[in-house]
Amino acid sequence: QLQASGGGLVQTGGSLTLSCAASGRTFSSTVIGWFRRAPGKDREFVGGIRWSGTGTHYRDSVKDRFTISRDNPGNTVSLHMSNLKSEDTAVYYCAADLAASRISANWKTYTSWGQGTQVTVSS
């Protein structure tokens, strides 16, 4: 099971860190992905990390502003967001792909989802 937390209201240019707590079985092949859904838009991939912590992948629009890390040996994956923009406003979700061969941007490959946490960036 996954549980996302840490959302809130932040001003443009500010920073926020989201956390995803994982419980239950995980494997070295597990990938934790972060997705978001803005009002009226489709769910989109934000970034992901291998459970081993050996690799990350981000969408281009956040690559220089967001960082995903894993609390090792804990079971928490964090999404550190900086220089936030209004277009980052969305409900953010973490999800797990238990038998991942790569970090996929396709939400359909992720089988376990946490509840969303709202991030609102105001100017």
As an assembly, this protein is single chain
Mean pLDDT across all amino acids: 93
N-to-C terminal Cα separation, in Å? Answer: 35 Å
The counted number of beta strands is 11
Strand content: over 45%
Largest sheet: 7 strands, mixed
Low-confidence stretches: none
Specify the number of helices.
0
Secondary-structure element order, N to C:
EEEEEEEEEEE
* Rg, alpha carbons: 13 Å
Percent in helix: under 10%
> What is the approximate shape?
globular
Derived from helix and strand composition plus strand pairing, the structural class reads mainly beta
Describe it:
- It is built from no helices and eleven strands.
- It has strands at 2-5, 8-11, 16-22, 31-37, 44-50, 56-58, 66-71, 76-81, 90-97, 112-113, 117-122.
- The strands form two sheets. Strands 2, 4, 5, 6, 9, 10 and 11 form a seven-stranded mixed sheet that branches. Strands 1-3-8-7 form a four-stranded antiparallel sheet, with no helix packed on it.
- A hairpin with a 5-residue loop joins strand 5 and strand 6 (56-58).
- The model has no long low-confidence stretch (mean pLDDT 93).
